[in-house]
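Let us work through a complete example step by step.
Step 1: write down the sequence.
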Amino acid sequence: MKEEPGFITKFFDKAYEAKSILELPKAPVTAISGVNESDAKNLKKAFGIETVEDLAKNKFVRLAQGVNFFSAVTGEILDKKFESKEFKELAGKPVSAISGISEGDAALLKKAFGINTIAELAENKFVSVAQATVSLSSLAQIMIAAGSL
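Step 2: predict the structure and record it as tokens.
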């Protein structure tokens, strides 16, 4: 199956613009426009990230997103007596505050994407592109299986 290039491809380097949404998750992380070889080396060294899908599904990215989301809505999901400033402050903490991210890994993230805090990792534009790509690819696979695409 070869569908027409979609809107997501505008976030990828020219060499990947004609790739199908099913192919993009397996593309190297450098396929994302703005991610260079040096960034890719730092991501691989810190977290073993090689592909768009690896970046999208990285456990530290997901932990950062969970912390960031929870800190943003803590007043809405916990009764006042259980609220804590601690939750709201977590997103501003350094990424090395996440168990498993060393100071060295944090330095590599800063070098690759300028990331310092948990919120910055959670909201990183390259992470967003990777996750949208993987989600669209999964949806396309479901639609193909259902005979809708």
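Step 3: interpret the result. The chain has a mean pLDDT of 89.
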